[in-house]
Amino acid sequence: MKLSPEKVTALADILLDALADVDGVLFRGDDTALRLAIDTIITDELMVEDRLDAEVHKMLQAYKYEITMGRLSYDALYRKLRNKLIAERRIVL
Asked: What are the CA-CA distances from residue 45 to residues 31, 51, 69, 83 (Å)?
């Protein structure tokens, strides 16, 4: 994940404060529960890229022999497979 948990919490606080300043926005829950929910959502979104990268690395294990023999470039395969999965799943990073 590219942001530390402290920065995610700070971002959740800023977002909640900004929403509270908007006219017409009413919260149904208490601030603590809302901050926790926003924190969880942000963390989940940031973890999408980490999960994708782990999946690509796992899939490339099937080509380990070809890569070590120099027949295939790990970096090129990684980029190609990652971009393919992003396009197929319509992931926004």
From this structure: 21, 10, 37, 18
